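Case study.
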Amino acid sequence: MANLQPVRGTHDLVGEEMRRHRQVVETARATAGLYGFQEIATPIFEFTEVFKRTLGDTSDIVTKEMYSFADNSGENITLRPENTAGVARAVISGGLAQHAPLKFFYAGPMFRYERPQKGRYRQFHQIGVELIGVAEPLADIETIAAGARILDALGVLGRTTLEINTLGDGDSRAAYRAVLVDYLRGNQAGLSEDSRKRLDRNPLRVLDSKDEGDRTIVAGAPLFTDHLNQGSQDFFAAVCDGLSLLGIAYVRNPRLVRGLDYYCHTAFEFTTGDLGAQSAVMAGGRYDGLIAQMGGPEIPGVGWAAGIERLGMLLTEAPQALRPVAVVPVGVAAEQPALSLAEDLRRAGLAVELGYRGNLSKRMKAANKAKARAAILIGEDELKRAVATVRDLDTGEQAEVPLTALHDHLARFR
RNA sequence: GCGGGCGUAGCUCAGCUGGUUAGAGCGCCAGAUUGUGGAUCUGGAGGUCGGGGGUUCAAGACCCCUCGCUCGCCCCA
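After joint prediction, the assembly is written out as follows.
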């Protein structure tokens, strides 16, 4: 608690940062709505078991990145590191599967205990969608399309690349996994320490290794595509065709993998080179086995999550604060009439700042600093004649306007 | 968890090989201007030099420890 600093990796959202954040969320919410996604807010903490079951005991998130604690009654609680688990839990505990297909949009804070760096925080925020209950490739296509549409609406789509891959169905993956493990075991001596660990827990992850020695070994590894059965090939082809039909550009990346067993078929990431070491801005895939694995019904799902901070940093133009008009009382006697006038104008839908203190010069400075479009001066002269002096603060033009006509006159400052 | 860089005013930074009362720009407050903002001028407030210890006649500067920020590794949004 030294010197009231924020907890490492946390940030206050204020000013421009808050506006960027809000721009991302509001754009995403509106766009997701066009695709029929309904907003859901699940608790920001769950029983630790919820994440252990969905993310797997060996994943990095579970082994070293969770914010977990025992609450006052001794329950093991974890601050959510991602939101798919929470949504899946909500589907199960709320018996929502009967209403499938379910289409959810969410936005909110997530927590991971990591070393902060550019685009990576301990409390960060994500938007995301989940489409649950549709096994057909149309679901994957629409989910990705919604994501691309959001990036486009934010003006950042052009700075990203959509990378896509297939993990195939369970049979295909099991078959491939077997040959891959055989191959990697044969080359075990050349593998990095990390990858040797992955070999047992999560062999597909080795394909994604950045270690140079690993890469040369991986380059000679059997190809996933050779082990996809017909159904898996058809599924992937349908997804790719759908994206092409919609004009969504993508690049196939055979190294893009998700290690956990319940992931299948589509895996994708929108990546960028503009965020330092962090490249992923939006990532997701299909998780048909997840809900069953958690103890729920057999129901498929596909979704993605995107980092709000990362998207916010990509916005080239920071959203501007709303520009108000300023009601400026001239002299103490005018303060109450000015207060009432400000309130009237707000009721009529205008954003209004009131000059609170100081002489006229001070209040004008304050109006200017608030980036007001116009100053509405009310003093004794004006009160006597039932008018207001309206000064356009951009042009300096000034006019007297009868109070009865004020609202219409101000329409252009909305 | 592991590396690199950096901590001086609200912000961005200067402070030479250790040397007197620690500076600038921007911002903030006040005045020039008691019915007119932006521009200009004048004045003012604001600093445990991140913290602790050490070396020295003398430390913002050098050494050690520590905390924090930041960038990267791992991994991820």
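Observations recorded in class. The two ends of chain A are 45 Å apart (CA to CA). Residues 2-169+229-314 of chain A form a domain with the BirA Bifunctional Protein; domain 2 fold (CATH 3.30.930.10). We will return to this complex in the next lecture.
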